[in-house]
Amino acid sequence: MVHALEEIHRLLKPTGILIDIHPVAESSPIEIHQGEKIEPVGDLSVHQWCSDYQHADNALTEIKQRGLFIVEREGMFNSLTYYDSVAEMRTDWKEAIDKFARDAQSIDESLPHAEAMAARAETMMQTAASGAELVVGERVHISCLKPI
Amino acid sequence: MVIRTDPENNETRALFDMANFSGQHVLEIGCGDGRVTWLYADKAAHVTAIDPSAKLIALARQELPSHLQDRVEFQNNTFEGFAATCEPAAFDITILSWSLC
Prior knowledge:
heterodimer, A: alpha+beta, five-stranded antiparallel sheet, 4 helices, 39% strand, B: Rossmann fold, four-stranded parallel sheet
């Protein structure tokens, strides 16, 4: 990751900027939304199987300390993903795990928790009103860095 | 199946708080299916968007609107592979888009 950031520095014009967007290492709340009513399902610990965002943070810290980039601006926002069904949510999680999981062991360790959350959501969705949606939230960090 | 991500446009607002994309040459690393690319592409002069997943790049190309076809270029490549072929100081903005390189 540090080498990649060095390459990004090389590819940027001196007046250019790097924008980094990635979720922070927090649990993602799962909720059922029915109109104005919001029911919590639980928290998905995505970062049990995807620790690499922490590595990304560490790499950014290292290149800032080395004086390759300075942070010009930064902020946080909430990114919510809406699913009509638990099946949709499971499929999306599987794709995310395939893309981001750091190793097979971390998947094996995390899947029971994810499946428990999905099963709880399934039970709650069965009694929810028509039109209810599953909502998974992520807290996301965005920063603008200038090359030095 | 319709999955909606960030219909509140929080990410769009955050992105435009960070940069002015007008007339800029943008490199997006880890573009996936182009979800973030579509937020700013119509403002940029040119976008090179790369992702190592052939499946996701195919999806992004399918969704590429005709009016952006000469402005947005999707490449199925790793960042390492892309950077090896790239001249220095080529981009005004680089976006690490939920990406780990």
